[in-house]
Every structure is written in structure tokens, then in C-alpha cells.
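lol ok so funny story. i was supposed to be doing the assay writeup but got distracted and ended up predicting the structure for this chain instead. priorities right. anyway since i did it might as well share w the group, maybe its usefull for someone
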Amino acid sequence: MALAISHHVYIVRCADGTLYTGYARDVAARLAQHNAGKGAKYTAGRRPVVLAYREAFESQREAMQREYQLKRWPRGKKEALITGYT
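and the output, tada:
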């Protein structure tokens, strides 16, 4: 039996063009939270947000490590990642 992939790292593009990186088990629900102003302080004033990128992982640890890595990347590198994803 295969393990379910239920841990995600995502990047959203905010209405002001900035990028926000986060972790979620349910990306659709997390986006709804962001767009309701309840997701994160950063995105609350920058709505609406649109999903730009996501990666799935089998473990929370892997996902959190990747989130940490992506948060340290400069914007240009994140944009290149997003461009390669779409």
C-alpha cells in the first residue's frame, strides 16, 4: 500500500505582486484561509492570493525543510522555480 502524500509546500502570489511561501496539509483549504484574511498576517492585507507553485511530500519533516529552504531564496530564484512549474 502506497503512502498518501499529504504535506505540501506552496508559494502564492499576492495582489501586490509579492510572494508568500508556506506549508499546508490541504492547500485548497489554506488558500481559502489566506483569501478570507485568516491565513497569515502577511497575506491578510495583500489579498487576493493565487497559487503559483506547490510541491508534495510524504513527510512533514521533508516539507518543512523545503519550506525553510525556499523562504531563504531570493525572489528571482523563486520566480524561476514558478516559471518552470507553470
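The first helix runs from residue 27 to 35. The chain has one domain: 7-85.
back to the writeup now i swear
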